[in-house]
Design goal:
The complex is a heterodimer of chains A (about 110) and B (about 110). With about 110 residues, chain A is an all-beta fold. Chain A is built from no helices and 11 strands. In chain B, a hairpin with an 8-residue loop joins strand 9 and strand 10. In chain B, strands 2, 4, 5, 6, 9, 10 and 11 form a 7-stranded mixed β-sheet that branches. Chain B has a 4-stranded antiparallel β-sheet with strand order 1-3-8-7, with no helix packed on it. Classes of the chains: A mainly beta (about 110), B mainly beta (about 110).
Chain lengths: ~110, ~110
C-alpha cells in the first residue's frame, strides 16, 4: 500500500523565518510527487516533481525531489503571515489515484 | 468558470438519513475522485473512477457508494449516515490516470448528528 509521511505535523515560526517541510514516501511505480497549499477551502497546486535533483521554484517557495532516498522537501524563505496554511504532499503511483500525507500545519506569526 | 462543482456546500443530517453529494466537472477530464478530510488526517480517498464506466474503492470506502453517471458527473451516496462520516468531502478530477493535474472542488462540509 502506498504511504506518504510528512514532518513535522505542525510548526510555528515568525515572519521572515525560513522553513523546510519534509515528505517521505513509499509507492509502487512512482510517477509524480505533488505539493499543495490548503487554506480555508480546497487544496491549491504548488509543484509537481517527477525527476530527482531538479529544483522547482516559484517566488519564495522551492521544492526538490530525491527519488533514491524517497523524499521531497518544500522550502519557504522570508515567510509571511499569508503563508499560514496546511501543506499537503501527495504521490501518484501505479494507478490513477494520489495518496496524500496528513499535512503540515504552518503558522506564521507577525 | 471551468472547474469542479460540488453541491451542496453544507449539510446537516440525522443519523440514519441518506443523501447524495453531487460533483460535476467541465474540463473533459477522464478521472474523478472523492476524498474526505478530517482534522490531522490529510485527504483520504473514498472512491475513484479512472474513466467513464469504471469505479474502484479507495482507502476508506465503507458506508459509501458512488456512481459515475457520465464523463462529467461523479456522485457519492451515503445510504445510512453515521456520526463517523462527519467530515469535509472533496471531489477532484484529472485529465489522465497519471496521478497529476488534479483540480479540486470547493468541498462539502457534512455534519451527522
Amino acid at each position: 500500500e502506498d504511504k506518504v509521511v510528512q514532518s513535522p505535523l505542525s510548526l510555528v515560526v515568525h515572519e521572515g523565518d525560513t522553513v523546510t517541510l519534509n515528505c517521505s514516501y513509499e509507492v509502487t511505480n512512482f510517477r509524480s510527487l505533488l505539493w499543495y497549499k490548503q487554506e480555508k477551502k480546497a487544496p491549491t497546486f504548488l509543484f509537481m516533481l517527477t525527476s530527482s535533483g531538479i529544483e522547482k521554484k516559484s517566488g519564495r517557495l522551492s521544492s526538490i525531489l530525491d527519488k533514491k532516498e524517497l523524499f521531497s522537501i518544500l522550502n519557504i524563505t522570508a515567510t509571511q503571515t499569508g503563508d499560514s496554511a496546511i501543506y499537503l504532499c501527495a504521490v501518484g503511483g501505479a494507478n490513477s489515484k494520489l495518496t496524500f500525507g496528513k499535512g503540515i500545519t504552518l503558522s506564521v506569526r507577525p | 468558470n471551468a472547474g469542479v462543482t460540488q453541491t451542496p456546500k453544507f449539510q446537516v443530517l440525522k443519523t440514519g438519513q441518506s443523501m447524495t453529494l453531487q460533483c460535476a466537472q467541465d474540463m473533459n477530464h477522464n478521472s474523478m475522485y472523492w476524498y474526505r478530510q478530517d482534522p490531522g488526517m490529510g485527504l483520504r480517498l473514498i472512491y475513484y473512477s479512472a474513466s467513464e464506466g469504471t469505479t474502484d474503492k479507495g482507502e476508506v470506502p465503507n458506508g459509501y457508494n458512488v456512481s459515475r453517471l457520465n464523463k462529467r458527473e461523479f456522485s457519492l451516496r451515503l445510504e445510512s449516515a453515521a456520526p463517523s462520516q462527519t467530515s469535509v468531502y472533496f471531489c477532484a478530477s484529472s485529465p489522465t490516470d497519471r496521478g497529476y493535474g488534479y483540480t479540486f472542488g470547493s468541498g462539502t462540509r457534512l455534519t451527522v448528528v
